[in-house]
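Researcher: Let's do a round of design. I'm pasting the structure tokens now; please hold your answer until I've finished.
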């Protein structure tokens, strides 16, 4: 608790800096709306999947696990905040 009238302080996830591996040993800022390529790096699919086609992994996560996605001009985009909530929800589900 904080000194601000007994209310809990919460951190807005939009204020937290998120980064993506850049493929060269460094990092680059993660946008609020990620492309599929950025999402693949954000979820570390190359590190955890044996699939050779990472786009199939994402398609499967959308179809089977409800991975959040929006479309703008027919381009699938993935809101970072929604993806983080989706991960948290899936962790809670798998831990029970």
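Researcher: That's everything. Go ahead.
Model: Designed sequence:
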């Amino acid at each position: 608790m904080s000194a601000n009238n007994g209310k809990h302080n919460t951190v807005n996830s939009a204020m937290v800096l998120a980064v993506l591996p850049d493929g060269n040993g460094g990092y680059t800022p993660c946008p609020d709306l990620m492309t599929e390529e950025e999402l693949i790096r954000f979820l570390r699919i190359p590190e955890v999947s044996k699939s050779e086609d990472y786009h199939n992994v994402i398609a499967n996560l959308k179809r089977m696990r409800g991975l959040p996605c929006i479309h703008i001009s027919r381009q699938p985009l993935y809101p970072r905040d929604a993806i983080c909530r989706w991960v948290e929800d899936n962790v809670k589900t798998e831990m029970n």
